[in-house]
Structure formats: structure tokens, C-alpha cells
Known about the structure:
By secondary structure, the protein is an alpha+beta fold. Helices cover 33% and strands 25% of the residues. It contains six helices and nine strands, in the order E-E-E-H-H-H-H-E-H-E-E-E-E-H-E. It has helices spanning 24-29, 31-46, 62-72, 86-99, 116-128, 180-184, and strands at residues 2-4, 9-10, 13-14, 106-111, 133-137, 151-161, 164-171, 174-179, 193-198. The strands form two sheets. Strands 1, 4, 5, 6, 7, 8 and 9 form a seven-stranded antiparallel sheet that branches. Strand 6 (151-161) and strand 7 (164-171) form a beta hairpin.
Amino acid sequence: MKVELPYFYIGNSLGGQQEWLPEYMMRIGGCAAVTACDCSIYFELYKGLKNLYPFDKQKILKADYIKFTDEMKPYLHPRWSGIDKLSIYIDGFGKFLEDRGEKKLKILGWEGDANFESTHLILKYQIDNGYPVPCLTLNHKNPLLDDYVWHWFLLTGYEVVNGDWFVKAVSYGYGKWLNFDLLWDTGFEKKGGLIIFRS
């Protein structure tokens, strides 16, 4: 069983990239804002929401996307500790949506200490219902996941193979399939988690 959400390209990049951003602090700490920008565009393209992306969503240009991150920055701005709590993301993106008149979409947190089985179910429910899932990974014991340490990225698909769960992680301009249980089991007490959308 494999389910994958539609997405969008900006040139050859799958979604946006924080490496594009001209300000140093956004390049190293703008991952939360980038996922929120991508979600906003996705919601306009595929969920029928309005007034979230101020540029042409049918022809998304890199220059326009960079301007859009400037608009998102006050809501999810980089900080020295990083956006290391789901509540910071929920408050920031929630205020962005409120300021743009979007009142139906709700944002909830799914903490990283939830068990595998319940998290599989929530992932399946979200993606089956057409919602990308922002994911925060803090520290991780496995060096294979170094690119996702202290990082926000989007989960846009899942596949179950012989009982093993895989997710499509979108970040850095491409999508990569990861073993979800490996990703979820960080080996550290302080954990990240998932952002859940409801409408």
C-alpha cells in the first residue's frame, strides 16, 4: 500500500529550499518557515483555501517564493534554540492563517513520544485526507538521518511494506523515502513530533 500526495515544483526543486534565502539566519534556521510556506501553497493548490500565497500559484517562481518567506518570517522567525517545540510552530503558523482570514483550518501537535502504532494511524489519516505533515526531528542517534537533525520537513506520503512503514520526506528540494520507525525512534529524551491539520 502506497499513498503519495501531489506536490509542486519551483523550477527543478520539489517545493522551496531554505538554502535560497538571502539572510544568513534564515538559511540556517528557516526550515520551519519554509515548511509553512510550502503548506500554504499546497493548501491553495489542492485544498481550495484562499489568500495564503500572495503570488501566482499556477507559476511559482523562485523570486516570488523568497519574497513569501519574508512574509512568513515574522511568524516563524529563526531563534538560537531553534523552533524546537510544536507549540511555537502552532502559534506562529496559526497567527499567519488568522491574519489571512483562514478560520476553518485547525493546527494540532502530535508529540514525538507517542507510540509507533498510534502515530502510524495519525499519519495514515492525515495523508489519506490530503494533508502534508510537518515533522520536527531534534537530535537523533542514527547518523544516516543527520540531514534531518534539528530540522523541520514535510511528510507527503507513506508506504507499508511487509509491515514496515516508510514515509516520503520533502526537504532540500527533493523527496526521500525514509523508514518511519527509524526516524521516530530518535534515541533521545527530548523529542520533536508532528503537526496535524484539521478542517
